[in-house]
Each structure stands twice: as C-alpha cells, then as structure tokens.
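Handout, section 4.2: multi-component inputs.
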Amino acid sequence: MKWMLGFLLIVAVSFAGEAESQVLARPHDLWDIIYKIWLIISVVIYAVVAIPSLYFMVKYRFKPGEREIGDQEHEGHWGLEALWTIVPLIIVLYLATHGFALFTQMRKPPENAMELKVTAFAWGWMFQYPNGKMVIAQAIKDTDDKKCKPEECYGIDGVFQNYVYIPAGVPIKAVLTSQDVIHSFYVQPAGVTQDMVPGRTTYAWFQINKPGEYWVFCREYCGQWHSRMFAKLKVVPKEEFDKWLKGEVADTGHEGADFKTANIENNKAQEVVR
Amino acid sequence: MREAIPAHKPWFSASLWEWIFTTDHKKIGIMYGVTSTVFFIVAGLMALGMRLELFNPGAQYIKPETYNWFLTVHGAVILLWWAIGVWASFANFLIPLMIGARDVAFPRLNALGYWMFFAASVIALLTFIPGNHIMTMWTGYPPLASTEGIGFAGTTALFVFIWHLTGFASIAGAVNFLTTVISMRQPGIGFFNMNLFLHGIMAANVIQLLGVPSVAGAVTMLFLDTYLGTNFFNPDKGGDPVLYQNLFWFYSHPAVYVMVLPAFGVISEVVSAFARKPIFGYKSMAVAIWAIALVGFMVWTHHMFVSGIPDWVKILMSYTTLLIAVPTGIKIFNWVATLYKAAIQYRTPMLYALGAILMFLIGGLTGIPLGIPAFDIAVHDSYFVVGHFHYVLGMAVTLSAFAGFFYWWPKVTGKMYPEGLGKLSFWVILVGSNLLYFIQLIIGIWGMPRRYYDYPPIDSWITMHQLQTYGAFILAFGVLLAIIALIKGAISGEKAPDNPWMSNSLEWRLPSPPPPHNFDEPPKVEEDYCPHGYCKF
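Output:
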C-alpha cells in the first residue's frame, strides 16, 4: 500500500514536470496530468481484479468426482475485506484531492486574459471582441437545408460561418451566455466545456499556443440542429490577430452586422453569478 | 411431498381475462418482464437506426428530427422500461418465493402499478405518431423542452406523462416490495440471512420512494411552464433553468442505483450458486448495497459540473461521488473472492454474471474520472460519458438481467433453455458490446460530443463510428440469439427439475413452475438457513 502511494506520487510529479514544456493548449496540459494518473490507476486496478479472477475461473472449475463443491468454510475474511475497503478509499481520496488542486488552477483565468463575449443562439454563436468587433459562427440558416455534402456542411463557407480569430499564446477568457435555450461551449484542443445558460453568465478560459484551425462544438443538446452547432477557431500569431481586429485583413465570409445581433447589447438583464 | 396438484393450472395456461384481472405476483412479474423486454427490443432497434445514420458523416437516411426522437425514446425507454422495469419483473416474481410468502403485501396495488406502467407504455407508443414525437432527450431540460418553436422539442406533455405514470408504478411497486420484505418473511429468515437480491431490491426501492417525488415535481413544473405560462424555469421572468436540473438529477442520479443494485443482487445469487459455495463476505456485501444507496443521494451535481454552479459545490460532490467507488469496489472484490476455492460450473447464467462483473469494472473505472471536475471539464457531454454509462447499463445491468432470465427460466417456465445457444449468445453479445462501447470511450476522449446527428468529416472519427456500427449489429445479433434461446426453451425445452442448480435458496424448493398459491403450507426454514451456495438437502 505504501509503495503504491509512493508510486502514485512519483507518477504525479513526473507528469506535472512534463507539463511545463511547450504545450498545444491550456488548460489541457493540466487535464493531461489527471488523465494519465487515472489511466495508470485504472489499468492497475483492472489487472489486480481481472488476473486473479481469470486464474480462479480456470483453476477452480467444476470437475466431476474431484471438485464438485466449493469450500463451504470460506465465507468471509475481515482482514481482507478491510484491506479492500481502505486501499480504494485512499486511492479515491487522493484522486479527488489532486483533482481539486488541478481544478482550482483550471478555473482561474490568468490576469492578462483577453475577454471574449460569446452569446449562443439556436444554432450558432456570436463572438464579441474587446473593441466591439463581432463575428458570427452559424452553419444552419433555415431548418430544411440538410442537403449539403459533409465537406460543405463543415466548411467555412457555410451560411454565416466565419473564422473566429484567436491570437496564439494569449489566454482568452470567454464570458458566456445564451439568448434562448441552454447551449454549451467546448473548445476541443483546450479541453474546456462550459454550459451557456440563458439568464446567467458563465465563463471558461483557454489558451492555444500553436497557430492553426480548431473546432468549437456545442455539447448541450439544443434541438434539431444541435449537431451542426460548431465554430472554427483560426489561431494566428498575435501581430496578425491585431491587424485583423483593426480590420486591416479582409475577412472570409460575412461580417456579423447584418444578423439579429443588434439587440445583443440591450438584451435581457444578464445577472452575473460569479 | 410435491406430487402433482392438478387443481391449479400453471400460469401459462391462464386466459386473457385472468391475465387482465390477476393480482398474482407471478403473473404480474411476467407481464412486467414481457413489457420491459418488448420495449428493450424497440429501443435497441432505434439505436440501430441511429448507428446506421452515423455510419457516415452528413445526412443519410433519416432527418435530424427523427434521429432526435429515436435518441429521446431510446434513452427514456432503456432507462424507465428496461433498466428499472425489468427489476420490477424480477422483484414481483421472486420476492414472495424467496421469503416464503403467498403474495406481495398489497396485491391489488401491485396490479394497479403494473397497469400504470402499461399506460405509460401506451403513451410511449403514442409518440410514434408523427406530430407526437418527443425530441427533448430523456432529460427534458428547459428552456428547450418548455419553449414552443425554439429547437423543436416536440410534444413535451407526453414526456411529462411518461414520467408521471412510470413514477406512479415505481412508487406502487416500492411500497409493495418494501412492506413485503419487511413484514412477510418466514421466521428464520432475517435481514442478515436473506438473499442479497432482496437487499438490492429493498435499497433500490427506498431510493424510488424518496427520489421519485422530486423528479415528478420537476416535470410537473415543466408541464406548467410549457402549457400554462408559469415561469419556474423561465430566465426572462426570474425563473432558473438550472433549478430543473437539480430537481431532475436529485432523483435521476440515484435512479442509476435503482437500476444497478438489483443487478448486483442477481450477480451475487448466480455467482454463489454456480461457484457452489456461499458468497464471500455476506455482511459487507449487504452493507455495501445500503451504503451505495445512501451516498447515492449526495452526488447528483456531478451531472451539472459545467452547468454554471459554484465551484465549491463541484468539489464537495466530487468527493462524495468518488466515495461511491469504495462500496462498489468491496462488492467486486468479494465476488472475485467467492471464486476462490470454488467449484465453478460454466452454465449460461454464470457466463453472463461473470461477464457483468468484469464489464462493470470498466464502467466503474471510467465513472471515477467523470466525478473529478478537472477531468470532466474536457469530456462532459462527450461520447466518453456515453461509453461509460453503456458499460454500466448496457453491460452490467443488461448482462445481469440476462443472467437472471437464464437462471430463473427453469423456475418460471418449468423448462430448461438450450445451453449451447445460450452460451453462444453471451459471447456474441460480449464481442459486439465491447466493440461498440469501448470505441465510444476512445472517441469521447478525442472530443466527439454526444447527441450528435451528424459529425464533421474527420477521417479517424469516421472509422471509429463505422466500427461502432458494426459492433452494434453484432450486439443486436447476440441479443436475438439470447431471445431465441429463451423462447425455444420455454416452448420445447426439457422439463426442468425443481432445483436444477442445487441452490439452497427458498424459491428452488417449489415445483417448477410454482403453483398459484406458492407454498402449500408455510415453509419450515432451518436454523442456519443460508440462501447462497450449494447445499445437499
């Protein structure tokens, strides 16, 4: 038991050390730590249960004339039962506490984070940058258009589907709310999910270090075209992003101004929960 | 002692009239079982439809509305009809036999409970009429479910009535089962030497009694919001949609223990019977069941880790959630220890039960990280969650239910099932399920969101979805084999002896099938009665 705890600590420390190097996205690096710890513990536990089971299953088969009845005296052992109560208890307490520590870090946006206001609607998002620039990501115009090929449906030339520009290496604090029903905001490379609840403001923060194109999905079921509620992040170097933000780079697709977003600003009172 | 008593017909020769007006717990149990299994098959066919649609990205065979309707009905039916309803069947049939009673405590209430369940079934079938489709998902979150026109949620009223009627049936059943076990046991059968299946059923039904009112209130408010203009969950008028989630999960998380605790009971019965020795650690097994039921009421917000609740609540519920792993672990270790120095006979029920244990372990181990908010934040509402609960419900619960079907089939029908076909069905189901559900875990880690009718054309995702579809069809074939084996057994099987498994439990001392009044005279239970394991008597 002691060696096991020691082993877990070593594993935890070694993964924590690894996370310091260049990572694709934050806070996914923290998630990676808990993921690896969980994976190792799970495989060990599965082996600890499955190997003896399979051994017993083979060894203690029913054999006519030789082994027709199990050992009737063998019906409990307090020492063993206490052992497999206490060891799992220690493991889960460790997991919950380590998870607690990581979660506190994952929920705390860095001081220099750029604030991005995101408002969800069925089925898309309106992104608002600090200088007021808006981008709409919406793949479904009306409820009947389903006859597109997958490459077209998920391409950037969708109805209002614009790239959502994000500066590389800059932490983003996404302030989230919804206009109609509950949606969700999942930044795939960063591994953060946060529901967007009408009447509430929630937040999530992320930082993507490597330029490229990344997915954002809605993960809370929001009706007919839930599955086409996605956005594409275009992560670009900081200088390029600043140019785009000032409007010096021609955008693909449409600017968001012509959509129903005019009333976003004076929308219903958005009580700030935290 | 048990020479034929021709005065009573066996249950299967009863007329339709007798079925409709029966208060016999065995007939009601069989009606529950048939209803659950029929709906299990319907929900399974809907899952096959969804898997076909997901075989390739893009719209293929069905519209998104149809897909969402399939998904809603699949979820609601598998949970309420199969995973909960099938245990009502086992409980009805077995409780009086296991405690030596003639019937349950309130036979007429029991019949009323079944017919409420039947009414819910009729409503579930009404949703098949175009225009009545429900597309709320089985959770029915407002404001989607309570707002006309946005997002196409379908007919919320039918969703609400399904919950009300199945909830009524659950409460009627719970009152009955608890009263029966508490007050109608034969002298000699105490709480610490009765079948573990009875502990599982009792704990599950305590949860039903305490939890169902919460979800019934939630869906009632949903109904009022939708049709009568109240604003419980309407944020524009000061309501709060997250309130619904709290009320809903306060029942619906413990509800998973309603589904799984009786399954644990069945596994214990079957494992100890075919290992031919007593269950290891009976007392810790019984205490673990009750501990799970108790702690199970304190973990519900792990379904809401990303709903915008305060972070400290998440941490608190993270600890309580992980605590559930401890009693669950005790049960698994005790089952493994039961196999030590056993004399294991590999009959079909034993294969199903052992499969359920080893697969439930995967379900449990993948459940642990979902209780850690730091992990959950990346996989919440992803296919990882889908894979996790399919390992628990699709494997642990379903395999145990099949183990129970095969185990008690000789008692219920009086006929033996075909052994070879039964074993084959187990292996086919095991291969198909693992192909389907393990890939769901992998693709969930990659980020695939759940409840998606369509997905982006990423090559690795397409491959994984196609493998899942193959797995689903293998699984369906296995279920078909199992059902054929059971039906073939019931129609043309050999005549079953009273006690084919040499179990010491009370229900095996009756003729197969049992006479309508169960016991001719109150059974004498020996001093050191132990319902588990092999005994010569």
